[in-house]
Amino acid sequence: MKYLGIIIVLVLMSCSSDDSQNDPLYNTQSNKLSVGASANDLLSDTTFSSLVVEVVYVEGFEPSQTAISNFVSFLENRTFKPNGITVQKRAISSPGLTPYTNQEIAAIEDSNRLLYNNDNQIAVWAFFADGSSANNTDSGVVLGTAYRNTSFVIYQETIQQLTSGTITNTTPILESTVITHEFGHILGLTNLGTPLQTNHEDLEHPKHCNIESCLMYWKAESGNGVMSMISGGSIPQLDAQCIADLQANGGK
Ligand SMILES: [Zn+2]
Ligand SMILES: [Zn+2]
Questions:
Q1: In angstroms, rounded to a whole number, what is the distance separating the alpha carbons of residues 74 and 192?
Q2: Ligand at shortest distance from the CA of 143
């Protein structure tokens, strides 16, 4: 591949059914809505006072503990969960389907996910794949995708390949960046279920922030954007306008 670009793709995919209200598995269905639909439930403690993240990785593609710790800190800084945020992590064997389509990623979740919302606790599914996205092209590779209201995938093999051979260990920084960018979409950024408080959506790159240094900036999705954004060795942070949006929707 002559040119290695980087894309973090957001796919809006709703798998909710019209009869979910009558479904005995309603709590399962409540985790199968579109991206951004549970932003307030995740940000506030109105309905859910605690949050659990089910981290499932393919053997050999475990995310770094640094990245998981950074993700938990991101959640603690932005959400009200007085009864705590916990992570349950485990490995599965390879589904053997790389490159993965979004439909395959959703099917892997459906086959392996154990934790769904209950009365007081909201559950999040994070899958770390042993391969690449089927949406990769010669001009861009996908590092992660938020595809349901509480679900995202990280293409851990692609992240490891991009950061292998670097003098300083950038893998945890890239992991942390992709995880928090995808979760930013799940929190409704930008204008994706969390209403804008100021006009900072980049209309040329919808559902992204127009502040160049912000975690939700579109360059995190194109060309060498991500690598240049993390070249200083730090993880891009949400800017003040994105934080204001989250605060107005029940967050910190
Ligand atoms: Zn994005
Ligand atoms: Zn922003």
A1: 19
A2: 1
Per-domain boundaries in the chain: 6-248
Counting ligands in written order, which one lies closest to the CA of residue 210? 2
Dihedrals φ, ψ of 133, to 5°? Answer: -85, 145
Q: Which two tokens stand for residue 142?
A: 């996908």
Q: What is the pLDDT along the chain (252 residues), one digit of tens a residue?
A: 334 445 554 444 444 444 444 444 557 999 999 999 999 999 999 999 999 999 999 999 999 999 999 999 999 999 999 999 999 999 999 999 999 999 999 999 999 999 999 999 999 999 999 999 999 887 778 899 999 999 999 999 999 988 887 777 899 999 999 999 999 999 999 999 999 999 999 999 999 999 999 999 987 765 356 888 888 889 999 999 999 999 999 999
Distance 9 CA to ligand 1 centre (A): 6
The CATH class of 6-248 is alpha beta
> Which ligand gives the minimal distance to the CA of 236?
2
